Amino acid sequence: MRHIFEQGTDPKAPTLVLFHGTGGTERDLLPLAKRISSGSSVLGVRGNVLENGMPRFFRRLAEGVFDEEDLIFRTKELYDFLGSAADQYGFDRAKLVAVGYSNGANIAGSLLFHYENVFKGAILHHPMVPRRGLTLPDLTGLPVFIGAGTNDPICPPHETEELHKLLGAAGASVSVHWERFGHQLTASEAEAAAAWFRERLAVADERA
Ligand code: MLT
């Protein structure tokens, strides 16, 4: 998969895995990663699917209607990629934190829905419910930040609540941060995610 890897300065900090929104690239969330954890190594990934020339992480049949077969295939493809990237760059596969926005948050959510221990934490900006009717893996204690919009037309509040409940029922420790700017990822939401990371993941990591 097309990607960028930047070695961090703090070997104890988790590696951040970045998943862009529709039409983005592996570089889009690099500034966000610096704000979240400046010493972390960063793996930015580009989605393997093109929709009218715009990179995505999986196909969709219409706005908000996912191609489930492709979603499952692409989720596994990414899961395998994370393993091979860990071998290639020498980062700790067990210490990955996902950072995704929109379509990227949806594929990160799908990884959490399908695989156990894929991430040690996740920051999901404006995610939807990736699949329904699944038994989720055991996510006990997994810290998850969800950034959501009270007026997000792509992911309405009831879907945010549904995702919160599904992850929580699997044991994840979910924090939801609400904004009023539709589907946008605002500076204040990014700051809230960074503060959450410092509290939930950076401190825990220093103690490790
Ligand atoms: C998706 O297709 O993943 C969501 O609708 C978000 C987006 O617009 O990319």
From TrEMBL:
Domain Dienelactone hydrolase positions: 89-189
Any one GO molecular function term: hydrolase activity
UniProt keyword annotation of Transferase present: no
Keywords for the protein's UniProt record, in alphabetical order: Hydrolase
Keyword Hydrolase: yes
InterPro entries, alphabetized: AB_hydrolase_fold, Dienelactn_hydro
Highest taxon of source: Bacteria
SUPFAM superfamilies: alpha/beta-Hydrolases (SSF53474)
One Pfam assignment: DLH
Name assigned to this protein: Alpha/beta hydrolase
